[in-house]
Each structure stands twice: as structure tokens, then as C-alpha cells.
Amino acid sequence: MAASASTTMKSGAGAESGRIGLTAWGIFAAATLIVLGAVNVINGFTAIQHSSYYRSDIVYHNFTFWGWMFLIWGALQLVAGALVFARSTAGYFLGVSLALVAAILWFFMIFAAPMPALAGILLSMAVIFSLTRGSEEAF
Known about the structure:
Blueprint: H1 2-11, H2 13-16, H3 24-49, H4 63-85, H5 89-108, H6 114-134
């Protein structure tokens, strides 16, 4: 009975409006995007308001610029996570795009901070895997 109800949901109005099913992989990716987005928003605010906090640990020179970049990036991650929770196809595409760019950017940091860069690359790949595996309907 439940299988027939979900089949009609896919072929009915839900398929036309861009809403897709939410699996456990999608929930993992959405939650990860929201947590990473929140961390990046906090890092952005910290870099803008208290740039002396990062002076000895990071290789950036213009903390106001990078603070705004982290803030915008975090906001985009929050939006992507919320859209995935809302079962929107745009959320899946935005999440995969953000995670792909993040993995590439973390790769450039591999010599400056090897362990955080490795963690960032692996987490980005986990988000990409979970978003693409979590919904065959979105892609």
C-alpha cells in the first residue's frame, strides 16, 4: 500500500513541481550543509569583527574580504541545506555545486594546513556522494 502511494506521488503533482523524495542520504547531506554553513557564518563574523583572532593561524591578509566571503558562502550552504530538507531539486544542485567548489578550494590549502584540508575534502566528497546517491530523481 505504501509503495503504491509513493509511486503515485512521484508521477503526480510532486514530480511536476520539482519536489523529490527525501532519503536518509539526503537528510545527512542537508544536515551537514546546515552545520557547515553555520560554522562558516560564525567564521565570517569572527573574521570581520575580531580579525586579531586569526592573525597567527591563517594565511589570509585581508580579513574583511575573507570574512564576507565566508559569510556569503555559509549563507549559501544554509540555503542549500534548507532547500534539500524542503525536497527541492535546486537544493540538490546548489549543494553539489557548493561541495564541489569547496573540495577544490580545500585542495589548494593542502600544503598550508594538511589535516584540515584533508578533512574538508573528505567532508565535501561525502556531501557530494550523499546528495547524488540520496536522490536519483534529482539528477
